[in-house]
Amino acid sequence: METDPISTEEMRILELNAEYLGVTHSMLMQNAGREVARVISNTTKVKGKHIAILCGLGGNGGDGIVAARYLDEDDADVDVYLLGDESGIRNKDTLHNWDILNNLHDILSSELLTESSVKSCRAIHEADILVDGIMGFGLRSRLREPLFTTVKMMNKSTATKYSIDVPSGIDSDTGVIHGVAVKADHTIALHAPKIGFSKAKEFVGKLHVVSIGIPREAKYTCGPGDLSPYKQVRDAHAKKGDFGRILVVGGSDVYSGAPALSGMAALRSGADLVSVLAPDPVVSAIRAYSPNLMVTSMGTQILLPETVETVIEHSKRNHVVAIGPGLGLEQQTRSAVISVVEQLVALKKPIVLDADGLKALASSEILLDPNISVMTPHWGELSILMEDDLGDETSLQNRSEQAIACAEKYNSTILLKGPVDVIAEPTGRFKLNRTGVPAMTVGGTGDVLTGIVASLLSRRNSAFLAASAAAFVSGVAGEMAFHERGNHIVATDCIENIHHVFSKS
Q1: What pLDDT shows up at residue 505?
Q2: CATH classification at residue 76
Q3: Same-domain check for residues 53 and 90
Q4: Which listed site, 82, 266, 335, 482, has its alpha carbon 20 to 30 Å from 367?
């Protein structure tokens, strides 16, 4: 249970990650219904009282349906009204609990299909207690009928009114009232209050926050929930570039594979366009990896200070710049990286820093923006960035603390790679990613991760979310590759499994 308000997206992520940890949606619904009934019974005498529960067809309605059984157990006279045809129930847990009610004789369960049927429902006028299980968090538009009329009828009633999670009609993120909203005497927030409540206090009434069994680990474990914001259906009118233009700045007179791997991973993660800006000696090699990459020469043998202006001009045409894969450690290259990063920070351009790009920042005193920057060191690179012996690298607590310290030092989101990845930001918030296999120590998997981070970061300015989702995707893709090839996987095997992670998670 949380006391701090959370957003709709955060709540959805928590629910999905709880399910990933084994706590099913069905379990959460049972817990929610029980807690709703407990709050009602603890705040109002229910024995012999007439309680009418108005339920939508989604999960919020399912919570109300479950609550009916517990209130019946407390000797209340309970009616449940489904606002719509039961054939429209798409939530399997809601449907299961509705079927249970239909097996019971002591609880009246019926459908209200139209506006007129709602108006003629005597229970809404006569009940002692009304429970709003119509619409939970996530509402973005005006309530449709018969929900709209139900809310108006509830507000006319003199009954004590309880809303489950969110008073129906309120945007749980903004507090905006979409036409009409339940004016509750009590709101029973599930797991945490929603951030829109502060702007709709007159509708919330007395707030009760209840635990529904979401494990504490769901808050700091990377899982399918973190990936869910990146899986929306694309608009039919979308055009090329709407889902990310990525610039990879990498390669040297020796290394060509690293920037190509980052670029291909970004494409497989959903980016529309990926450009690679590389030194002249490796341009042909990178082009040969794939015709899907747009490769341009820096015009020099390695990244040099005189190349900085070229990098900045290319960056202005892209949403995210990934810097570092295969750049090399020449002193002139280090100086150029610092200059590029300083200018990108000034331009407020989202950045992903990896490998040699990271090492160049040590001792630089550069401060990034944690909302739009991700640094992806392994333990050795973290030690270079912190300019210190960091102690026991096998201690997860130490790894987490050092990642947070690095995030504070550079004012950036940190994705510390390892057997358990640590994603940290300067506020001290962190997540752990436990996906992946030891076979991913093969060269190139870090470059793949860089490309995934860049692709996700291009779609929204939330570096922490992008890094958390990318770590999960990279690890699961590696697990899938390992299932196919055992310890003989290579980085490109991971890339070819990225799309499976999106479709199956």
Answers
A1: 87
A2: 3.40.50.10260
A3: yes
A4: 266
Q: How many domains does the chain have?
A: 2
Provide the token pair at 116. 């007129």
Residues 185 and 60 in one domain: yes
Question: 447: which 2 tokens?
Answer: 């470059």
- Encode pLDDT of 335-384 as tens digits: 999 999 999 999 999 999 999 999 999 989 899 999 999 999 999 999 99
Residue 234: what pLDDT?
A: 85
State mean pLDDT over 70-93: 96
Question: What is the distance between the alpha carbons of residues 250 and 311, in angstroms, rounded to a whole number?
Answer: 11
Provide the CB-side half-sphere exposure for 319 (13 A, CA): 21
Q: What is the pLDDT of residue 295?
A: 97
- DSSP annotation string for 371-407: TTEEE---HHHHHHHHTS----TT-HHHHHHHHHHHH
Q: Give yes or no for residue 140 having a pLDDT over 90.
A: no
Question: Does any domain span residue 233?
Answer: no
**Backbone φ and ψ of 350, nearest 5°:** -60, 140
Cis preceding linkage at 146, omega within 30? yes
Give percent above pLDDT 90 in the chain: 93
Contact status, residue 98 vs residue 86, Cβ threshold 8 Å: yes
The verdict on residue 329 lying in a domain is yes
Q: How many of the other CB atoms lie within 10 Å of CB of 487? A: 10
Residue 177 placed within a domain:
yes
**Whether residue 161 has pLDDT greater than 90:** yes
The pLDDT of residue 237 is above 90: no
Query: Based on the domain organization, do 183 and 244 belong to the same domain?
Result: no
Q: Determine the structural domain holding residue 395 and report its residue range.
A: 239-504
Residue-wise DSSP of 306-365:
GGHHHHHHHHTTSSEEEE-TT----HHHHHHHHHHHHHHHHTT--EEE-HHHHHHHTT--
Summarize the confidence of residues 153-176 as an average pLDDT.
96
Convert the pLDDT of each residue in 456-500 to its tens digit.
999 988 999 999 999 999 999 999 999 999 999 999 999 999 999
Residue 339 near residue 306, CB atoms below 8 Å: no
Q: How many whole angstroms separate alpha carbon 119 and alpha carbon 134?
A: 16
- Per the DSSP assignment, residues forming a β-bridge with 77 are 50
Q: Say which residue the tokens 């436990």 belong to.
A: 434
Whether 1 maps to a domain, the answer reads no
Listed residues 156, 190, 220: the one ending a domain = 220
For 26, counting Cβ atoms within 10 Å of its Cβ (0-12 exposed, 13-18 middle, 19+ buried), the class is middle
